[in-house]
Every structure is written in C-alpha cells, then in structure tokens.
Amino acid sequence: MRKPATDRRRGGHRLTRECTHSTEAVFVPACSTSSLSPRSRHRACARLGIEYAEDMPKFECDSCGACCKGHLLIECDEIDVLREPRLINADRHHAGKSVDQMVREITEDCMAVLLNCGHRCQFLGEDNRCGIYPTRPNCCVGMEPGDEQCQYSRRVEGLSPLQPVGQLSDGLTAGAIHSS
User: Fold this and answer.
1) 123 in Cβ contact with 90 (< 8 Å)
2) CB-CB neighbours of 121 under 10 Å
3) N or C end: fewer C-beta atoms under 10 angstroms in the chain?
4) How far apart (Å, rounded) are the C-alpha atoms in residues 51 and 76?
C-alpha cells in the first residue's frame, strides 16, 4: 500500500498525502505519469517507493462513482481553477473569491482548493456522472480505474474490487471457462 507522503513537489508531481479534514485516512492520487517514458516512470515510482510493473492489468471504469463520494482528497491547483472557476465555490473555505485572488493564493501562499474531502463531490450527478467532466481537475484526470485509490473507494463504499478486463471475480479469465 502506498504510504502517505508530505505535500512536497518532486519533478512537478504532487505526492500523495492524508486528508486532515477527515477521521479516516484519505489519499490524494499522485499525478499521472503516463506522459513519461517507461524508464522515467520506473525512476519516478522508485523515488516514491512505489512498485512499477510494465504489464499492469487493464481496467475499465464501471461508473460506480465511488472515487467522487468523499473518500479521496482532491486538490485543485491554479490551472484547474483557471480551467473551471466553479471549483472555487466547491470549497467552503474559498467560496466567493475571484479567480485572480484564488490563483494568487495558490501560487504565492501554497493554498489549494479542496474538492470533496469527506463529502460527495458537488459536481457528481445522481447518475454517477461528472458534471464538469471536460474541465475536471487534473487529480481527477489522473485517476485510473482499478488503481489503489479506486479500489480503496470501492471498498469503503461496500463494492467488490474492480476486476481487470477479461478477469472474473474468482480470478479466472473469461477465456478459461469451458463448458463440459
């Protein structure tokens, strides 16, 4: 399991950390490393103490919405606020501030807009669809189906773990089942 780290930045990637606004451990996903070369991804994961495997299983999101129901801490940076200004009002500590004021606080005072820490995301619809999907925060973009944060959120919601594509819940692959 990934250990919570401090809120330092290394190489432009925000590390994971625990949410201090909740009574249980809540994790922030590390930024996606998909744009890095395999060698750079391996080094980045090694620095963070995360095991990296080339052939990671593939998962498909089943739109359960568990990741948006308040079990994860989502930090929004200045680029997120510039792209989607409604994020400011989603954090009760910053509601009513202008985009310019919020960007200044983020860049100069190391502040962040917190989205859904301990509460269901206000942009999550009743159908478990994101109401700001095209302009959602980078932390949301970086979440991957089946990753540690996905499985943690599903477990807290009482859902079974998301299985890799082509694998059934008992660990067999779909092609391994034969009729007698």
Assistant:
1) yes
2) 22
3) C
4) 26
Residue 106: burial class (beta carbons within 10 Å; 0-12, 13-18, 19+): buried
CA pair distance 157, 161, nearest whole angstrom = 11
CA angle 174, 175, 178 (to 5 degrees): 105
Cα 8 to chain centroid distance, Å, stands at 17
Structural domain boundaries in the chain: 9-157
Q: What is the pLDDT along the chain (180 residues), one digit of tens a residue?
A: 443 333 433 333 333 333 444 333 334 344 444 456 667 777 777 787 776 666 667 899 999 999 999 999 899 999 999 999 999 999 999 999 999 999 999 999 999 999 887 889 999 999 999 999 999 999 999 999 999 999 999 999 999 999 998 765 555 544 444 443
One-letter identity of residue 55: D
Angstrom distance (rounded) from CA 14 to CA 8: 7
Identify which of 10, 55, 50 has the alpha carbon closest to the alpha carbon of residue 27.
Answer: 50
Find out whether 79 and 136 touch, Cβ atoms under 8 Å: no
Counting every residue written for the chain, the total comes to 180
- How far apart CA 125 and CA 128 sit, in angstroms, is 5
Q: In one letter, which amino acid is 149?
A: Q
